[in-house]
TrEMBL record:
It comes from the Bacteria. Keywords: DNA-binding, Transcription, Transcription regulation. This is MarR family transcriptional regulator. Pfam families: MarR (PF01047). Residues 1-132 form the HTH marR-type domain. GO terms for molecular function: DNA binding; DNA-binding transcription factor activity. It comes from Oceanobacillus indicireducens. InterPro entries: HTH_MarR-typ, WH-like_DNA-bd_sf, WH_DNA-bd_sf.
Length: 141
């Protein structure tokens, strides 16, 4: 289907801009939100786990984590392996997650207006398959 990815990319930037606008009330950006989102859904985690999940380099996550630590949204927790940093949300981080999640859910509902549940479900299942195909292609190189 020619043009599929062009359509996706034309949606991506405006959506990220809207998310950044929503999150800015809390001094956050979408890239910082990704760490908060991951920790909320997965619990205490290492930076490597987060970097692998988002398919980014560890230094990218390290910069985000430092910023979130400065904001007291996340904190490190003791680990037996000092080479591996484990982080978790603080109480403030959990509250910010809840507040932002409501705003993001409202945005998601607005963006999905006029799209049937079946169409939403189809897209929901297609994107992980596309992601897996891209990862498999990267591993072949």
């Amino acid at each position: 289907m020619e043009g599929f990815f062009q359509r996706y990319l034309s949606l991506y930037r405006p959506l990220i801009s809207k998310l950044n606008e929503l999150l800015s009330d809390h001094g956050l950006s979408y890239s910082l939100w990704q760490v908060i989102f991951y920790l909320n859904n997965n619990g205490p985690s290492t930076l490597v786990e987060i970097a692998n999940y988002y398919n980014v380099e560890k230094p990218t996550i390290t910069r985000r984590v430092h910023r979130l630590e400065e904001m007291q949204i996340i904190k490190p927790i003791p680990s037996e392996d000092r080479r591996e940093k484990i982080i978790q949300l603080t109480d403030l981080g959990k509250e910010i997650y809840r507040t932002c999640r409501i705003k993001i859910t409202d945005l998601e509902n607005h963006v999905m207006e006029g799209i049937t549940k079946e169409e939403q479900l189809a897209a929901y299942h297609i994107f992980p398959k596309l992601q897996e195909n891209i990862r498999a292609d990267n591993e072949r190189e």
